[in-house]
Amino acid sequence: MKITTFFGAVAAATMTAGFASAGTLDDVKAKGFLQCGVSTGLTGFSAADANGNWDGFDVAVCRAVAAAVLGDPQAVKFTPTTGKTRFTALASGEIDILARNTTWTFSRDVDLKFTFVGVNYYDGQGFIAPKELGVSSAKDLDGATVCIQTGTTTELNLADFFRTNNISYEPVPIETNAEALQQYLAGACDTYTTDASGLAASRATFENPEDHALLPEIISKEPLGPLVRHGDDQWADIVRWSLNALIAAEELGVTSANVKESAMQAGNNPEINRLLGTEGNLGEQLGLSADFAKNAIAAGGNYGEIFAKNIGESTPIGLARGLNAQWTDGGLIYSPPFR
Amino acid sequence: MSDTHAQTVAYVRDTMLPEQAPPTTAAGPVRWMRDNLFSSVLNTVLTLLSVYFLWVVLSLVLPWVWYGSWTASSLKECREVVADLGLAHGAACWSVIAERYLQLIYGFYPAELYWRANVTFVLMLVALAPVLYPNLPRKMLWFSVLYPFLAFWLLWGGTLWTPIVAVAGFVLAYVAFEVLYRVAGSLVGVIAAILVPVIWWLLLAAPVANGLASVIPLAIEPVESAKFGGFMLSIIIGVTGIALSLPIGILLALGRQSDLMIVKAICVGFIEFIRGVPLITLLFVASTLLNYFLPPGTTFDIILRVIIMVTLFASAYMAEVVRGGLAALPTGQYEAADALGLDYWKATRLITMPQALKISIPGIVSTFIGLFKDTTLVSIIGLLDPIGLTANIRADANWNGIVWELYGFIALMFFIFCFGMSRYSMYLERKLKTGH
């Protein structure tokens, strides 16, 4: 903990001293590629295949931003970051944007001096328990041993949840998700708690998934989103509106299949026209080309397509849209208007 | 007498009987087992218990290893294949190794350039051979000296002029020393030998290399550090750390015993400071803190930073191991060297250091093995060494949930390297043994 505090202090000191004048957009254009921080490996969100090509839900955000800025979704270099190195990598300028299933919290936004540009996945902390335990609610877990990853927000949420419900638990602190799953399957703990998306993905890999149940309680809000450094508002705007373009595209029915055609000439829907740059000068206002949103959408499709391809119900991870449905479908995914 | 004898005894053997094989109970495997396994009641019981234990373990592990699937394309498919076999305890999914072994060895190094990594590895063995086996021609050591520069060029690519210019710094240092030593004496010579190459590397090397490269490129395709991973990364960090930590460690050990106060203070301070912090802290310094200290935009290669930190760490431990060897020498050896009229460096080189190093071999090799295994810590700072890659491979939806096979493979590879080092050290100890 001492080290973390020390690094945080150094980070804060350096942040206030420098970076105010940094022009990330110019840097990225000069380099010719986007340096994007991702997770060292999280199923569905970021993973490299046997040939070293990165793919996943978070990776798609990086590719969309690269396409918007440089016109090429492949102009990205990925820096694998761990939970411990991610914030310093961003604060020190080693990476231009961090898209690593990072929860948007007050202290990360304010104290660590980052700008969260939006939310690309609304997650929440859940519990998994073997069915033979006979537990139907997390509130029945009085006295249970709980596997928990150390150094994450989930550890704090867990303590809060058990305290507010006035029940006791015995934590089994564990470093990585893989280790936690081994411990859970070996019976070292009665239940394992982490982000519900991760639990669902992990349960799908068990030998007997039907023997394990996700408990209904979601005990925390975990809005995950890409973030950039404080102090470069233009760059934050670019990343924010690249993400919003993907979300707006789904709402407006623009997909990777029809985006090229729609961007050829102005159509009947003025909002689509403004989004794709056939009307108005939104791209120019951002300091990008008029077709930045078109490039971002063409990179991997709109938000819904990216979701379906990487973590949706047709994938082994099989997550339902739930909170992450468009606002028109009762979810929370909502882009401010392009005008 | 003989007559009497001849008449009283009917037959006398006049040749020796041929030697007979001892009875089976007193020789061969039976005898060995009686001596070693069943020599007493307690030993018999222990032997039987051990055999039972081995049988239990092996009867579980061997079928799991042997019947494993090599061809499935995902964990799910593999489980189906294995379930069809009907084994009580399942079987391994080696298919993940079959699919990803190249990645575990080379990381994300471009596949068409694997030959460069292979050539570097083979040349490493060639460069190590004269160091490890003194029977080989001494001229091969020149290749060992030049090898690091060649390896750097082969692995990272770019223009050949970069390593050549780097070597030129050492040549310049030698020339400066030789010239000024004759003109102005040894102190000026030593100072010049340090200053000249530093000035060369910091100020002149880059423009000269760029200039030469623009005339004659001599370049091969560059590969950036982010693509390095797997065992290649472990070996690069491990071998560089091992090769550099021994000489630095020896110098530190000598410095710690020195009578010169400043030298001694610096060495003691360095050793105690580095040994006082865990390696992982140094790695965090390398990966995160240095970024803040360096001016923004400086690209100081992460692998280089890690190698420097690992080397410093191993050097401090090495210094203490060597100091242990020096302390074990009888004072008579030092006095004998003085009595022969040898100066400090000659006495160290010819008398004390060879004996001290011989005593320290087990400790030195232990430090090497520890260092090589410690390279897995770099996964915590996000470098994709084999351990770091396991997280990445599991993030692939096809292989999510696979654990034992990956770690088993990595453990086997590390065992091969560490066991090799350990056997070599035993060979060296036998070879250098002079106690009779």
Automatic annotation (TrEMBL), chain A:
Please list the coiled coil stretches: none
- The protein's superkingdom reads Bacteria
The region annotated as signal peptide is 1-22
Keyword Transport: yes or no?
Answer: yes
Solute-binding protein family 3/N-terminal domain mapped to chain residues? 33-262
Q: Which family does it belong to?
A: Belongs to the bacterial solute-binding protein 3 family.
Can you name this protein?
Amino acid ABC transporter substrate-binding protein
Keywords assigned: Signal, Transport
Which gene name does the record give? bztA
Q: What's a single GO BP term from this record? A: amino acid transport
The record's PANTHER family line, in alphabetical order, gives: AMINO ACID ABC TRANSPORTER PERMEASE, AMINO-ACID ABC TRANSPORTER-BINDING PROTEIN YHDW-RELATED
Automatic annotation (TrEMBL), chain B:
Q: Which SUPFAM superfamilies match?
A: MetI-like (SSF161098)
Swiss-Prot/TrEMBL keywords:
Cell membrane, Membrane, Transmembrane, Transmembrane helix, Transport
Report the superkingdom from the record.
Answer: Bacteria
- Residues in ABC transmembrane type-1 domain copies: 231-425
Q: Where does it primarily localize?
A: membrane
Tell me which Pfam families the record gives: BPD_transp_1
Q: Where in the cell is it found?
A: Cell inner membrane; Cell membrane
Entries under NCBIfam families matching the protein: HEQRo_perm_3TM
This chain's protein is named: Amino acid ABC transporter permease
Origin species, per record, is Neptunicoccus cionae
Q: What are the leading ranks of the lineage?
A: Bacteria, Pseudomonadati, Pseudomonadota, Alphaproteobacteria, Rhodobacterales
